[in-house]
Amino acid sequence: MAKTGKPKEMEGEVYYPSEQVIAQARLKDWDALAEKAGKDLEGFWADEANELEWYKKWDKVLDDSNKPFYKWFVGAKTNIIHNAIDRHLKTHRKNQLALIWESEDGKTERTFSYFAMNREVSRMANIIKAMGVQKGERVTIYMGRVPEIVFAMMACAKIGAIHSVVFGGFSVDSLQGRIDDSNSKLVITCDGSYQNGKIVELKAIVDESIKRCPSVENVIVVKRVGNPVVMESGRDHWYQDLCALPIANGKCVTEVMDAEDPLFILYTSGSTGKPKAILHTHGGYMVGTYSTLKYVFDVNDEDRWWCTADPGWITGHSYLVYGPMINGVTTFMFEGGPSYPYPNRWWQCIERYGITIFYTAPTAIRGLMRFGESWPNKHDLSSLRLLGTVGEPINPEAWKWYHRVIGKETKPIIDTWWQTETGSFMITPTPVVPLKPGSGTRPFFGQEAEIVDEEGNPVPDNTEGYLTLKNPWPAMLRTIYGDDERYVKQYWSKFPGRYTTGDSAKRDSDGYYWIIGRVDDVIKVSGHRLGTAEVESALVSHPAVAEAAAIGLPHDVKGQAIHTFVMLRTGFSPSAELAEELRQHVSTHMGPIARPEDVKFVDKLPKTRSGKIMRRVLKARAQGLPEGDISTLEE
Ligand code: WT7
């Protein structure tokens, strides 16, 4: 990217694609395709779907007769695994690498061709079937970043079971709630996982969680770490032992699914109450992740793609597992984090594996930036062709560092805005789109975003408002699993006829979107989505706590950090020890990512007359900002 050769005048600081980037790009004319998709949404998506294989094609591309319960590729038969694995076995891709994995300590490398993926996924699929899991039933997956987590997800999909991956950084309460809500019969886990050289005892957390989950009949345990674990006979099975059984052969027929059959649920935090199970389906999600990755990151068979997200988040589902494999690229997965044992760990992997496209989060970039340029500069990063970011707004300073130090000022930075609910990229450039640091540019083909005020009226350019999406898209969530009413209320009621994102944003005069942040009680800690309600219930579960409030405040590296306010029960008094104990309590119950930055003891909390905690007021006070409209504040 160079600031020269302006094709058209734009406002603000603009980075135009270089001639080389344009020459390489698969899609050169962004405007033409955007216009085509804008005029014929169904035609655009039908063309995309036609690039994939179907057991039977659709009768109708989009059925919007029962809004907001949209259906895509109605009447079609498919299975996402058919396109992510099976179809590649008939082509040159059969012997290409699907997955490269490196252990945290760098001592082990495992690679799987598409042929080998088929064998491993089939094997796991046969084992899951042998555990009595049937089409449509839920399987909870709670593992570290090892190849078997990918096999487990894909194996469920292959047999038509619904996977529910719970991030391996969550702890007992979060896991238990998710197993229970999904009514899973089977849990797939590891003995432990590595995190910065330490062992996280996943199996022990599973044991503790399922004490209160009567639905669980079997637990499959992948041996990774070798830490001592308790195996309950009849219920717990070592994966490696199961693999030796005759049923665990590498042949399994892929189940024929309706396009609208559920593929997975993934829990995410909302504004109130417990996490919501976002439901995605085989057909639409398959087309959406395929098409977005193809255009946005321009992937091809020679690429070595690295998405640093954990499979436990939507980014891992869509762009570590499904999107890349449907596109037939080689995916790299790294077990560890960016700075263990040294802050060059990621740059070392890029050099070692010749990564061509690198997709990460602003929090990681900010964190690595602090260690200085000498770490990346030790490594040959010249294999890189494109860089990407996701999860929260990227501050221009971090964008520029990423562009200059990692991208050597020649690689476009693809800032992708989307959500667990959207399943695929929604606001994003492609490599030929001029970039502005901090903006995800414009909506993807076929989408229209509109920023509106409280009443739903579009606001003028450069004015903050609610970000809404006007058109349905194939990878959209279908519902909140088991709670259609909440789905309608949460996403389609505030502004009827459009999807409410929960974000506030601005649009500039070039039509570029600038995300400001969440408008609800969702906190983004290091790009991870957490609900204030979950942190508060964890605090209140401690015997000393009567009431609690959690808010997110700006943090240099994490983006936002959790700050809490606690009212104690009578008989308890504030102390530094108690504050520390409460922070630890949240960490033990929810997971280390939810550990509050601080705990402040208060005598009362600002509340509305109807008793709702006014977090907005706490936030303003903490930052020394005006408290805004406090007319509903109780005396
Ligand atoms: C929320 C969704 C799906 C990606 C991982 C997060 C924020 C996401 C961006 C971006 C500014 C972003 C939004 C959104 N967000 N990407 N490129 N720029 N903000 O998925 O956990 O469901 O969170 O993440 O606030 O609503 P998620």
Bound ligands, named by name, code or SMILES: 5'-O-[(S)-butoxy(hydroxy)phosphoryl]adenosine
Terminal residue distance: 57 Å
Strand content: 15-25%
Strand arrangement across the biggest beta sheet: 12-11-8-6-7-14-15-23
Largest sheet: 8 strands, mixed
Instruction: Give the overall average pLDDT.
Output: 96
Give the C-alpha Rg: 24 Å
Tally of strands = 30
Shape, per Cα inertia axes: globular
Unreliable stretches covering 5 or more consecutive residues: 1-5
Count helical runs: 19
Q: Please state the structural category.
A: alpha/beta
Fraction of residues in helices?
Answer: 25-40%
List keywords for this structure.
binds 5'-O-[(S)-butoxy(hydroxy)phosphoryl]adenosine; seven-stranded mixed beta sheet; 635 residues; alpha/beta; 30% helix
Report on this structure.
With 635 residues, the chain is α/β, with parallel strands linked by helices. The protein is built from 19 helices and 30 strands. It has an 8-stranded mixed beta sheet with strand order 12-11-8-6-7-14-15-23, with helices on both faces. Strands 5-4-17-16-18-19-20 form a 7-stranded mixed beta sheet, sandwiched between helices. The protein has a 4-stranded antiparallel beta sheet with strand order 21-22-24-25. Strand 6, helix 6 (147-159) and strand 7 (162-165) form a beta-alpha-beta unit. Helix 7 crosses helix 8 (202-210). The model is unreliable at 1-5 (pLDDT under 50). Bound molecules: 5'-O-[(S)-butoxy(hydroxy)phosphoryl]adenosine (WT7). 5'-O-[(S)-butoxy(hydroxy)phosphoryl]adenosine binds next to helix 11, strand 24 and strand 25.
